[in-house]
Amino acid sequence: MTARAWLLIACLLSPLPLPAGAADGQDLVIRAPASQVGFVLRTRWGQHLEGRFPAYRGFVVAMPDGEWQVRMVLDAAQVEIIDQPRHTRMTRGEGFFHAQRWPVVEMQSDPFPSALLREGGELGGIVGIRGLRREEVFTILPAACERPLLDCPVLAEGDISRSDYGMDRWGLALGDRVRFQLSLWADEPGTP
């Protein structure tokens, strides 16, 4: 990712107010490349196109009331459809993410109790694509360990509508639903 893109990401993250817990160093940094941010598109002929965001930054922010919030910025210019160079170009282009004009995809969860990461359940939040921000709901799957994010990944998935974000080109070839799939690991403060 270019220095310009990281600067843009830093600018997008900086207006978000940091909660009191952040000053105490309690925030967790989402670990790349261990984490994965992917999505699945379905064609009208039943084919599944698997995509991923190989470049992103994210934090799990400690809120003052003991809850947490996930904040992520994904680099739309790096999005790819796995093993499909032509579909990758189309996905980055004007009819889909239009990465040249809107270089990032934003995700910010609603605040949630840490028990949600262990037990699983529904988690709402904001997804920002192509300059449009919408409320979406993702499902957190029950964790396989006592310290999710640190000792095992947090798995989440959720569907969005392409047309809600102005990505309505290729309607005859692609279904409207996009299934996001996240597998997130994080590092404790001070981890190199």
Tell me about this structure.
The protein has helices spanning 3-13, 20-23, 85-92, 115-119; strands at residues 28-30, 36-43, 48-52, 56-62, 68-75, 80-81, 104-109, 121-129, 132-140, 154-161, 174-184, 186-187. The chain contains 4 helices and 12 strands. The chain is mainly beta.
Largest sheet: spatial strand order:
6-3-2-11-10-9-8-7-5-4-1-12
Distinct helical segment count: 4
Structural class: mainly beta
Radius of gyration computed on alpha carbons: 17 Å
Biggest sheet record: 12 strands, antiparallel
In short:
The chain is mainly β. Helix content is 15%, strand content 41%.
Describe the secondary structure blueprint for this structure.
Elements: H1 3-13, H2 20-23, E1 28-30, E2 36-43, E3 48-52, E4 56-62, E5 68-75, E6 80-81, H3 85-92, E7 104-109, H4 115-119, E8 121-129, E9 132-140, E10 154-161, E11 174-184, E12 186-187
Antiparallel strand pairs: 1-4, 1-12, 2-3, 2-11, 3-6, 4-5, 5-7, 7-8, 8-9, 9-10, 10-11
What descriptors fit this protein?
single chain; 192 residues; mainly beta; 12-stranded antiparallel sheet; 12 strands; disordered N terminus
